[in-house]
Design goal:
This protein is mostly helical. It has a domain of 56 residues. Helix content is 75%, strand content 0%. It starts with 16 loop residues before the first helix and ends with a helix.
């Protein structure tokens, strides 16, 4: 067997289980850096440790980019929300408010066009007299005497035609 290499290949040092798990965690961070909350946490940790930031510079830059994109998305959503609220206000709320004002004015105008309600003073006096107990007793006595008398008396009033003549 011929050895094509002039020097022997360097052997990889065996890594401990902690180092392997640490590498897996960093790989997970690389995958999850698109989420703004995780990117903010990773960025805070990398800002605190200069050596880790130097070792994982791509992760640091990806976190910064992710946070910038999240901020831009949030601002864009706010602008869209403001636009939708303004369109709803212009197309729905303002016409409804104007219609309400016009309807209110039309109702006021219709009420003013109605004929005035005249209070009849005699009707009020009749209601007052009906409540009076003395007059109620006299009315009851009159009703009791009127149906029982079948023959005309001299005290009974004359017929209406005779009175007008």
């Amino acid at each position: 067997m011929l050895n094509d290499r002039p020097y022997p290949a360097p052997r990889k040092a065996k890594r401990s289980a902690v180092e392997i798990e640490e590498e897996r965690a960093w790989v997970r961070f690389y995958r999850q850096v698109g989420r703004a909350d995780i990117a903010a946490e990773v960025l805070a940790q990398l800002d605190a440790d200069a050596q880790a930031r130097h070792d994982h510079l791509a992760l640091y830059l990806s976190c910064r980019e992710s946070l910038r994109a999240h901020k831009a998305r949030t601002q864009r959503n706010k602008r869209i929300g403001q636009f939708v609220r303004q369109v709803c206000r212009v197309l729905v709320a303002e016409p409804m408010r104007a219609l309400g004002r016009k309807t209110s004015r039309a109702i006021d105008l219709l009420v003013e066009c109605l004929p005035e309600k005249r209070r009849e003073p005699a009707a009020a006096k009749v209601r007052q007299l009906r409540r009076d107990t003395d007059i109620a007793h006299a009315h009851d006595a009159f009703d009791r005497n009127a149906p029982g008398s079948s023959s005309p008396d001299a005290t009974s009033p004359a017929p209406l035609a005779a009175r007008t003549a």
